[in-house]
From TrEMBL:
Keywords (A to Z) from UniProt: Membrane, Transmembrane, Transmembrane helix
Species assigned in the record: Micromonospora zhanjiangensis
Annotated transmembrane regions: 46-73
Protein family according to the UniProt entry: Belongs to the LytR/CpsA/Psr (LCP) family.
Protein name: LCP family protein
């Protein structure tokens, strides 16, 4: 069943902020000893707040500019793994099913996994809903706070009985007992659907290694830092950026990486490090969520303005990088259809929204919950009236540019 196309009310986005990243070296952090250590269960999953969908956003927000048609798209995307990431959280026939004529909603996840870790022993640090209205001329990013309390339903695929926990734990519970990343995403998608009413057309997941490869393929991205923050994870040693654990092993002087307000072209290591900071920020994880959205938009803009989407060689290099750690579910629709459906959307049409007014929202017992305005925003996503909602409630617009 086709979903009726709705018109879009323009949403006014505040003017861009300023930015600058610290650190003078553009080289990636080094690993001094190369030794593998057995990974311990982490209470606070690590860095890379992976920022997700490099490939999906970059491609879908550039459909009109891609040269070569379906043949090039097929070539550029053949490295991307596809899996069933939605399960029962996909759109029903009554909601449009595989038909892309109506509004499109995607669940985008970012995880931190390294070669010597159990890939299923993880929780996503980045959870984003990408909403494209039926007019297909704009796109919205909404970050879901990872610590939001959620009722996670039972999931037979991983022999999970159900519980109440932080929302990102749904991915972990779904991945156990053979569920894998597919099961993890299915359970998380169902949990979000139960909380918001939103069903999905597709989902994407990318881990740090794949995300870093995409940034490296782009070269640099323009980021505007809005507040001074000292890195909790990296230091400079002999003018080179290193993870703190590796830097300590050198026995040399460590100088903290400090990201200072202002705008500049950031190399990949600096952009990723900035986007993963939450300690020392005025609104903690909420500011980090907006910085993650900011980086995604910067990457999309760089890919378009830098000609990556009009140059077959650059496009193939970009998608090859993303394909190393990128998994996609288009709900049964061909990837090429997804891309060309977005032909009216550009990087400048990507609007970043914030939940809970950009700060911690509590239920009175110290648990993180959605506030009333955020619940209304999710209802607007479901009803495809989000653009109108944003116009009427400009406070939901991100202040980060």
């Amino acid at each position: 069943m086709s979903v009726q196309t709705r018109g879009r009310a323009a949403a006014t986005v505040p003017p861009a902020a300023s930015v600058y990243s610290s650190g003078s070296a553009a080289r990636p952090p080094s690993n001094t000893d190369g030794k593998k250590t057995k990974r311990k269960r982490r209470k606070d999953p690590g860095w890379a707040k992976a920022l997700v969908i490099a490939g999906a956003v970059l491609m879908m927000l550039s459909g009109v500019a891609i040269v070569g048609g379906n043949a090039l798209i097929s070539s550029a995307t053949n490295n991307i793994s596809q899996d069933n990431l939605l399960g029962t959280a996909g759109k029903s026939e009554a909601e449009g099913g595989k038909n892309l004529e109506g509004p499109i909603d995607m669940l985008l996840l970012g995880v931190d996994v390294r070669a010597d870790w159990d890939k299923n022993d993880t929780r996503p640090d980045t959870i984003i809903i990408l909403h494209i209205p039926a007019s297909h001329d704009q796109a919205f990013l909404i970050s879901v706070p990872r610590d939001t309390e959620a009722r996670i339903p039972a999931f037979s695929k991983s022999k999970f009985a159900g519980t109440t926990d932080k929302i990102n734990s749904a991915f972990f519970f779904g991945a156990q007992n053979g569920g894998g990343w597919g099961g993890g995403t299915q359970l998380l998608a169902q949990t979000i659907k139960n909380m918001t009413g939103i069903s999905f057309d597709g989902a994407a997941i990318i881990d740090f290694s794949g995300f870093k490869s995409v940034i490296d393929a782009l070269g640099t991205v323009r980021i505007c830092v809005d507040q001074r923050v000292e890195s909790h994870h990296m230091s400079m040693v002999d003018g080179k950026p290193m993870w703190n654990a590796d830097a300590k092993k050198t026995g040399k002087k460590m100088t903290p990486v400090v990201h200072k307000p202002g705008c500049q072209e950031m190399p990949g290591w600096a952009a990723l490090d900035y986007s993963r900071q939450r300690y020392g920020l005025r609104n903690g994880d909420y500011d980090r969520q907006q910085h993650q959205q900011q980086l995604i938009k910067a990457m999309a803009k760089k890919a378009i303005d830098g000609g990556a989407m009009t140059n077959p060689t650059k496009l193939n290099a970009l998608m090859k990088a993303a394909g190393k750690a990128f998994t996609l579910d288009t709900g049964g629709a061909p990837i090429a259809d997804f891309i060309f459906t977005m032909k009216g959307v550009t990087g400048n049409d990507l609007t970043m929204l914030r939940t809970n007014g950009g700060t911690f929202s509590t239920d009175g017992a110290g648990r993180e919950v959605f506030n009333p305005l955020t619940k209304q925003m999710f209802a607007a996503v479901k009803n495809d009236t989000l653009a109108q909602f944003v116009t009427a409630n400009p406070a939901v617009l991100s202040t980060k540019k």
